Structures are given as C-alpha cells and as structure tokens.
Amino acid sequence: MSTPDFATDLLKRANIPLPDEILSAREAGDWALAEAIIAGWLSRDLPDCLRERLELERYYLAHMRGEYLLNTAALAAALKARIPDFDEANVRDLLASGWLDTRMVDGERRFHEDSAASLLKANAELARRAGQAFSPASDVLDPVIAKIRQRGELSMALHLRATLSIRDHVFTPGETYRVHLPLPTPTMQQGDVHILDIRPNPKHVARESAPQRTAFFEETLANNAPFTAEYRYRWHCAYADVWDGEPFVAYPDAPPPTEHDLKECLPHIAFTPYLKQLALEVRGDEVIPIRIVRRIYDFITSRVRYAYVRAYRLIENGAEYAATNLRGDCGLQALLFITLCRILGIPARWESGLMADPTYIGSHDWAQFYTEAWGWLPADCSFGGAAYRKDNPERRRFYLGNLDPWRMTSNTAYFAPFQPPCLHPRNDPYDSQRGEVETQERALSAGEVATRFEMVSYTEA
After folding, report:
1. Total domains present in the chain
2. 187-221 residue pLDDT tens
3. Cis peptide before 200, with omega less than 30 degrees from 0?
C-alpha cells in the first residue's frame, strides 16, 4: 500500500463508526476475535468507505499492541522505583481519576508505555512523592518572556544542526535509504532562513512555501553514515497583550486567512456533534472573537491535562480524543484549539517543529488564530497549561498571543505530503519533526532511527 492511498483514503475514514461486533470485541480486549471478524466482513460486498474503515481498523490493531506494553503490576513497579510507597491500589486510584491511558489488550488491562513518565511530568502530587521538582520557574523561559513584555518585541538569531542516523542494529550495508529531514521554513515569526550545509548531497530540497519542508536523500550506504542539515534563521516576537492591551496587528505581513483555515481536515480536525456542542458551551454568550478565543484557551489550559499519547496515526480523532479524555500532548491540544476555533468561525491553523532553547531541543506543536483586530497570533496551549499547573499566571497569559523565541518551524500545515512523497506509510503522517526513513520494502520505525539536534549558537538580533 503506498502512502498516498493510505493517507488520503484510509486515515480519513477514521471517523466512520465500526460494526457493533467488531467494536465490542475490540473494547473487550479480544483483539484476535476483532481481527477475525474484520476478515469476515472484508469478504463481503461492502461500501468502499466502510471497507477502508475496516482496513484502517486492522492497521490499528496490528500496531496498537506495541503502544500498550504495561500491565498493572508493571506500571506499579515502574512508579515504585521512583516512589517507594507506590502500589497497585494507587494505579486504580489514578485510573479512576482520569490520569491513565488504558486499553484491554488480549484479555488483560494494559497501560500506555509512557504512562510513568507522563504522570511524573504532569501530576504534581506524584512528582512531589518522587522528590522531583515541579519547576514553578524557568531559567530559560521566564527571563525571555519578561524581556519581550518589557520591550514589546524581541528577535533572536538561532543556528541549529540536525543529525539523523539509522540505528546500527537495523542498518544493512548496501541498502538504499530514502530519508526526509525537516528544514526551517519562513513564517510570520521565522525569517532570514539560510540552509548552511546539507550532507550528503540531497536529491531534492522542498521549496520554502512547502507546508512540510524537508530535504530528501536517496543514498545507497556502504557504511552507516549520518544525514545532516545545518541552518540559521531569525525568530521575531512582537508582544501582544490580548487580555488587557489595545488591539493592533502584530504581524502585518502575515498572509490573510483562507477558506482552509475554517474547514474540517479529517480525521483530527472534525466538526463532530460533541465538539460542536462543546464549542457552544465554551463560548457561552460571548460574541467578541478575541474573548471567544480566550475562553477556548482557558478551557484547554485548565481542563485538559498534559499526557503522552500513542502515535497520532493510531488515534481516530485527535481533537475529540483530547476533549473526551481531557488529556493530550501538545499536538492534540493544538488540534482541539484549532477545531473549536474553526467551529465558532475563527480562522485557526497548525504550526510545528522544534522547541529549541539552549538547554533542550525537542519536538513541539502549537497553533495560530486570526481576528480582524489582532491579525494572526500564535497560541501554545501546552505551555499555557504547564504554566497553569505550576501556578504561573503570567506565563500562562503570555502563551495566548505570543511565543518564546526558542522555536524552529518546519510545518505550517497538518497532514501535508512530502516532496517527493514516501513509498510507505509514514511513522507520523500528520507532522514532520524528526524525519522519516524508508527502504524500498518498508518504512523504518521511530525506534530504528535516531535524530539529534544541537544549538550551535544564538544571539539577540
């Protein structure tokens, strides 16, 4: 199955309901039975869209086992290693209070493989019991936020290096590898983009306007040599106080919104009955757009807990997942923000790439929204929610309308194709942050590839 078919057909069928007997077998944890029933259904004369939904469900079941690896005893043991008095009764308490991502798998209750790390990151009480600081202040974020608020703007010149390697245990000498490595792209905040060095020589570098910009390599490797890209760019922050300040257009050169910024984009930006009802509830009687946006942001940052989640390709609807489970990572929170805005007639769009500060570089997603009074502005519900949990109201307010300068944007749209397209389903068909690698036969998994980022330099510009 090629990626174009997989991406455009199967994944967009995730919002179609399953036949009752398949759904009940899956939810009961009898996945072997669910797979058998799917095989029986696929032998029947079915509508094309339902057939594609069943093929997608078969794909889900084949890959979900690798995400839910911990039974109750294993999760308790993982947390007990950090919290000596932790036991299985605590697992049940956390499950009852909505802190855990769990599934019945082959007759046994299993928890997501990152559950322990996710809890210690987002649950203040567990962090305290583990003797882990919940970090109410940041040596990197708080000073730069204060500087942006004081000056009204700030520009930072950043120089980064990305290195992608195939892990030795899966590398095959003489194999031809197709690699897509993300690159920075110009945005309303990111400019003066210069690609300084790319090795080996790429077969294609996507245009700057590409919605997911990458360098593409196709190399037959005798030795396990890395793929590297080095680049510099300038990040500009114009301070917008959307809570108490006077309206102004902070980024006047940003292109105007389009029809796409108000539309569904299946499967993760879907105007479902629940999300439409939630949007109306969150909006209440408010009619002024920026105040509606503030209500959406307040809801997500105060009510949706941060949590690591399974791969996005294994989630039927990311926005609804976050709104129903009241938990989700940065990407799912951004998708929920975008979806609620669009339902209420406020243009919103996706942006992602890296959080790249002097102490840490990692994948990150956020959003943008548009009102006539303010133009386009960024919103980072994940960072805002972290500030809420850590009782830092100033930082929480900052991340609606503003971003810190420690960013690198490589994606300006969600669910966008690469140039050229992959041969096989991507590990993340929606986003592009750490790169994708494939051979003629298959795509390498995330665990078979290592991507490292380095901050070469940074200066105020």
Report:
1. 4
2. 999 999 999 999 999 999 999 999 999 999 999 99
3. yes
